[in-house]
Amino acid sequence: MKKTLEFKAHDGEIEDIALGPDNKVVTVGRDFQCCVWQQDQLVTGLRWHENLPGIPDKAYRYQACRDSGTFLGLGTVTGSVAIHIAFSLQRLYYVKEAHGIVVTDVAFVPESQPGRELLGDHEAALLSVAVDSRCKLHLLPTRRSLPVWLLLLLCAGLIVATILLLQLTFPGFL
């Protein structure tokens, strides 16, 4: 094996590392940060005090990470578990103290046939393992969205309403 890239990712030790799509790498470190990297460039990151304000950052930190491509699963030293959108790090799911103590690993249920059966109508499933000798399954409910045809219909209606409003405000506009 040959080293192809070296850069400073965190101040202190790296707790966990996960490979994501498009050659992205996710790291969590003892410096209370979770970072998404493309080569040696920081794409985006989470800082404990920005993500969870009001909780002292010296007592808590990210411990484990996994990136499914769409979602990023995180476990903490306090036993909390979170799921974020991978590209924006927007938090979709959070359970404070899901475990009694340190979450040592997290893993997404694969998109295989048995995995799909376990998921049911949920968007994702994350397994978490902790020092409390428990393994827990976290199900992310499917996010509701508008059908594309309804969104296009609403846009068309907005355009027609704008034209009519302009016509009423400025006679002879068209």
TrEMBL record:
Keywords of this entry: Endoplasmic reticulum, ER-Golgi transport, Membrane, Protein transport, Repeat, Transmembrane, Transmembrane helix, Transport, WD repeat
Annotated TM spans: 146-170
Membrane topology category: Single-pass membrane protein
InterPro entries: Sec12-like, WD40/YVTN_repeat-like_dom_sf, WD40_repeat_dom_sf
GO biological process: endoplasmic reticulum to Golgi vesicle-mediated transport; protein transport; regulation of COPII vesicle coating
SUPFAM superfamilies reported for this sequence: WD40 repeat-like
GO molecular function, one term: guanyl-nucleotide exchange factor activity
Lineage top rank: taxon: Eukaryota
Compartment(s) where it occurs, according to its Swiss-Prot or TrEMBL record: Endoplasmic reticulum membrane
A single cellular component GO annotation: endoplasmic reticulum membrane
UniProt protein name: PREB protein
